[in-house]
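Before the break, one more example. Copy the sequence into your notebook; we will annotate it together after we see the structure.
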Amino acid sequence: MTRICALIFCGAALLAAVGVALADDEAAPKEDVPQKIQRAFDATIGMTARFTQVVESKGFGEKREASGTVTINKPARMRWEYDEPSPLLIVADGERLWYYDKAENIVYLEPLSGSLSARSPAMFLAGYRPLAEIFDVTLSKASAEEGTWTLKLIPKEPWPGLKGALLKVDAKSFIIKEIMMVDHLGNRNTICFSDVDTKASPPQSMFQFTPPQGVKIQQAARMPAPSASIP
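Here is what the structure looks like once it is written out:
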């Protein structure tokens, strides 16, 4: 399962749905930014976007890049589709988490309850816990020129795959622009979003997965190693 990057689900995906247009709001005072991001997330039910991902291995000095599309529908339903030449599909159907590696002709399956444990930041994606309950949130950087807010997120409870993260959102719309995650080994996983649609109403069929005939299905004992490379 080394080709699967678990941080997509347990780190980036939970933050991918925070953006929603708040065109009627004035620019938020610094102390109100985390609360406004939480409000934006609460108001967002469905989302689609393009993403690009860069995983940097500190120990090996390697950099891997990938791209694809993401579709999210709360609670706890999402679909990450990686582009060629390394197609990978990750689907959360509300009860189970599926990883389909087409190149290796194998499907990994895990109960979603295991991924959304009480100590997992993915509880934010599921809508069960506010952002401030999972992370210590501070405003890391604000740039009027760039028009962005950047939040520093440190897990309140120890989590093996995530030391901290930086979340960058548009300063006016609060739509997600970038999330950069760092594990305890110093490896970085950066995902940038574009063409974000926070008013999407994706059909439920997008979050259903039927393993292709003949594919090997393997029960996942745990989430793949967070430092694993992208496809």
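The domain at 7-219 is CATH 2.50.20.10 (outer membrane lipoprotein receptor (LolB), chain A). The two ends are 10 Å apart (CA to CA). Try to locate both features in your own notes.
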